[in-house]
């Protein structure tokens, strides 16, 4: 998988980091070519040892109400469990390779299985799901960005021609599974004709529960540290002033009682 340059996506990505007061939205959109070269070919060869490229893999149903009761019942009757869609192992490889490329070098998705993915019902459903999440979190900021975002997506991948998949892992396999993560989504827009995948990933992180390694809340930590440092500086200065004052008092007291005892006595009399 090769990351394709896209100036439109770069501009949008710079706007997909949004602070809303109590949370921070962090998103990015990336375009990848499905043409395999070098390491991809070797990885695909190893991947095919578990099954041929044309073999279909069962996927999990979308995490929504988009699956009808009839379809779910039929799936259960067929002995497949609540698995509503399938994709070829070659397509599954493209999805896994996209994750590896997007999150490298921090994560390895080579053990990811078909049940970690879902095929979404339609472009309109994903459109509404994304807009609902981002509008609720970012309000007017996202409303201004929304037309530009979807126009850039359509220009790059031709949405009407796409199959759309999502990655919905368990907590142990989730790159966004750390404490403080409020929600996340990972969508793959796959255009078979163009041999291209656009990956749209986004998450919302609480500013009050952000983990240390996330980089979120660093400014607050720095402000607190600076405040502590200033208090310590002020405390040290107060101690120095106190020491100087005591020294001065001792010096003054010695000269008064040594040379001016009667003066002190007459003051008391007055």
Automatic annotation (TrEMBL):
Cellular localization per UniProt: Cytoplasm; Nucleus
Positions with biased composition (Polar residues): 61-76
Family that this chain belongs to: Belongs to the MAF1 family.
Protein name: Repressor of RNA polymerase III transcription MAF1
GO cellular component: cytoplasm; nucleus
A GO MF term: RNA polymerase III core binding
Region listing for Disordered, in residue ranges: 58-83
Pfam families: Maf1
Keyword Transcription regulation: yes
GO biological process entries: negative regulation of transcription by RNA polymerase III
Role played: Element of the TORC1 signaling pathway that acts as a mediator of diverse signals and that represses RNA polymerase III transcription. Inhibits the de novo assembly of TFIIIB onto DNA.
Originating organism: Cyprinus carpio carpio
Keywords: Cytoplasm, Nucleus, Repressor, Transcription, Transcription regulation
